Inverse folding.
């Protein structure tokens, strides 16, 4: 994903946005106006290309947008800006409400239960009111908030509730951005959230970050396969299947805890990969 500005001569570089040659000392591209200055990830300090949207090293967003389409020239699309502005505003309002109620010595107002109710669970807003006891978000760790929102979105997606998916996905991704540390499981969950709203580039960037951190990790190939299905990209799908089958035996022996938690998804992907492999041999 990280391309950088390729050297075309002792005193020229290529614009990362349009590919046009520019003097090495230039600050902006004379063809498209994009900045030629080096960019760095705010989280880990890795150098980024001029149009990188996610850090190639840690997977964190390099721009405040996570939509599937790019806007070119390193500038986030309006829909991307809106999603993150809404997420930030909601988080700020929730924190402000909690602080205000705590200072008054009054319990915080009830919030919707965002737990995954399962296939037989009741709808969280049945009858226009929250079902069951509301969780106390002020007592949750950042990872607990992220996991709770992730479960809420994925449950809604399973039930075909696109309105809830659209509402809670920016909040869940905002919670992910607040995590102090991320592991393969958190990155996998964030990628699945992005794919729920069509964020193929962001999901693939997270798959790349998983593979860099833990070469051969199966989650990277599951994400790429799901992204390929969404983008209808046969090349990416075939590569995901091939790499998954190549690394599966060693990863099965590794017996990682996160694999046990997602065993059905791994088994299903393996079945599809083996079927594709058999088909190609015929």
């Amino acid at each position: 994903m990280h391309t950088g500005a390729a050297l075309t001569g002792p005193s020229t570089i290529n614009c990362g946005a349009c590919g046009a040659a520019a003097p090495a000392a230039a600050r902006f591209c004379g063809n498209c106006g994009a900045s030629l200055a080096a960019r760095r990830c705010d989280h880990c300090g890795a150098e980024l290309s001029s149009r990188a949207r996610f850090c190639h090293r840690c997977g964190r967003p390099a721009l405040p947008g996570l939509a599937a389409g790019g806007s070119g020239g390193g500038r986030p699309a309006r829909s991307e800006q809106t999603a993150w502005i809404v997420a930030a505003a909601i988080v700020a309002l929730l924190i402000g409400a909690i602080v205000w109620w705590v200072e008054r010595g009054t319990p915080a107002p009830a919030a919707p239960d965002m737990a995954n109710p399962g296939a037989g669970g009741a709808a969280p807003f049945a009858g226009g009111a929250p079902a069951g006891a509301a969780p106390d978000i002020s007592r949750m760790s950042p990872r607990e908030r992220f996991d709770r929102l992730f479960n809420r979105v994925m449950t809604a997606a399973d039930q075909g509730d696109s309105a809830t998916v659209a509402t809670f996905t920016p909040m869940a991704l905002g919670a992910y951005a607040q995590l102090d540390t991320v592991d393969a499981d958190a990155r996998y969950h964030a990628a699945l959230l992005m794919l729920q709203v069509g964020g193929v580039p962001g999901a693939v960037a997270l798959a790349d970050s998983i593979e860099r951190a833990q070469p051969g990790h199966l989650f990277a190939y599951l994400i790429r396969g799901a992204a390929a299905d969404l983008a209808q990209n046969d090349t990416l799908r075939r590569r995901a299947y091939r790499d998954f089958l190549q690394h599966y035996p060693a990863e099965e022996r590794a017996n990682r805890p996160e694999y046990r938690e997602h065993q059905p998804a791994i088994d299903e992907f393996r079945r599809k990969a083996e079927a594709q492999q058999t088909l190609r041999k015929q």
Q: What stands out?
A: The two ends are 34 Å apart (CA to CA). The first helix runs from residue 78 to 104.
